[in-house]
Amino acid sequence: MSQDQLRATLAGYVEKAQAGGSSKARERHQSQGKMLVRDRLLKLFDDGTLIEDGLLAGIRRDLPGDAVVTCIGRIHGREVAVIANDMTVKAGTWGYTTFLKITQMQELAARNKLPLLYLVDSAGARIDDQFDCYLGRKAWGNIFYNQVQVSGVVPQVCLMFGPSPAGSAYVPALCDVTFMVDKNATAYLGSPRLAKMATGEDVTEEQMGGARMHCAMSGLGDLLVATEGEAIERAREYLRFFPDHFDDAPAMQPAAAPESGPKPSDIVPPNQNTAYDVRKLIRALVDAGSFFELKELFAKELCTGLARLGGRPVGIVANNSANKGGVLFNDSSDKGARFIWMCNAFNIPLLFLQDISGFMIGSAVERAGIIRHGAKLLTAVCEAKVPRISVMVRKGYGGGYLAMSGAPTQPDAQLALAGAMPALMGPEAAVNAIHLNQIEALPEGERTAFIQAKREEYARDINPYDPADRFSFEAVVDPDDLRDDLIRRFAIYSRREISRIERRNGVYPV
């Protein structure tokens, strides 16, 4: 063949591969409000930076790319690896060549310490390929094995544009974070049809494994977005908080003043029992527009998110009294623990805003394992080696104070605002515990006044200055000076080398 013929043959194959599935399949895909896989990549990457591996895989079998695009490109000038399902080719399912492409890109990302993004839109594994791919040491399960091996080595981000059923549902579960497109993304181990057959349950796909359910109830999703374009833009923004790999530090950005609005002193109510949205305080402290909340719809009594303080990326864990009084439950304990582990893995300093009366109590939460879940959060806090500053905004009671990085867990600094109330327990519980016999001995009509007087007496003795006098706090800070204090302290504490724990692993609470 002549060079012109060779070029024409190659061009034909490339054109066919880049087109993806049939025109009918592409039209059906786009009619669901979805972008074609290469349009997603064009929006994700900086212009002209895509390098693709395995473009011609499956081309002689009429399976362009074998239903997956594996490539490297740049996001804000940094190389990232991407594994993107092509739903227009055999419903984005995994075959043997698909498995080879996915695992090879995972291994390439690990070797070269590149962040790894999964663009998920797949009907799962191909049952007719199971004998090549299910059993043995070279099989679909290697995908999950690789995810676990690179966890905490490079950031792993999952963008869910469509389904991820059965075993493939573990791809989003094993990523650091999962962003889900509302009304299109789904994940479940068993489909509604399978559930109907096995258990008789009659349920829709959205009820079984829809994006909103996972972001609000199961906790699988970290961010619910309305469109694919929003998911991609948010992923580009998210990655700017992270280094390429765990041995590097996150990049500083130009500092920005906080959003204009009320000062911290105007946001935090002086009355400990008055609820407020802690996100208002966060936005008054951090660089304008930098707060990136994760799991906003899940376990809302605890707020977790990334932000910048004077240009420095930080992870924030804050009790939110606007939801369930900010008391810690099982889900909020899990939410906090996972977020702390992620920040610690990638050298992102941690800021804790404490306003906590403790863990939820009662027989229902005890049966559900509140002690185990609380121990998970406490483990994550005590294991964290990154710079860590804790601020007692208002209440700091009991075990909740410890789980929110209290001074005994060895933060770099435990600060307090002027209205902070540090105590083993609050006035209500303490008076009941200390004076129960006296209360019961009083006539019914005298009890209320006695209890109120004792509560006021107890509360007068709870203040930040006695602990500061004993050096239990590094400082008591005016709320309006807190931002500047935090910026200076994080700059100092970030100078130290982050030590590692020398052991195989801890035996973690589950």
What do these coordinates show?
The protein is built from 22 helices and 17 strands. The protein has 510 residues and is an alpha/beta fold. Strand 14, helix 17 (398-403) and strand 15 form a beta-alpha-beta unit. The longest helix is centred in the first third of the chain and has 17 residues, at 3-19. The chain is elongated and about 100 Å long. The protein starts with a helix and ends in a 17-residue tail after the last helix. The model has no long low-confidence stretch (mean pLDDT 94).
Set out the fold topology.
Layout: H1 3-19, H2 23-31, H3 37-44, E1 51-53, E2 68-75, E3 78-85, H4 96-112, E4 116-120, H5 130-133, H6 141-150, E5 156-160, E6 163-165, H7 170-174, E7 177-181, E8 186-188, H8 192-199, H9 205-209, H10 211-218, E9 223-225, H11 228-239, H12 264-267, H13 278-285, E10 292-294, E11 302-309, E12 312-319, H14 330-345, E13 350-356, H15 363-367, H16 370-383, E14 388-397, H17 398-403, E15 413-417, E16 421-423, H18 427-434, H19 436-441, H20 444-460, H21 465-469, E17 475-477, H22 482-493
Parallel strand pairs: 3-4, 4-5, 5-7, 6-8, 7-9, 12-13, 13-14, 14-15, 14-16, 15-17
Antiparallel strand pairs: 1-2, 2-3, 10-11, 11-12
Helix pairs in contact: 4-6, 14-16, 18-20
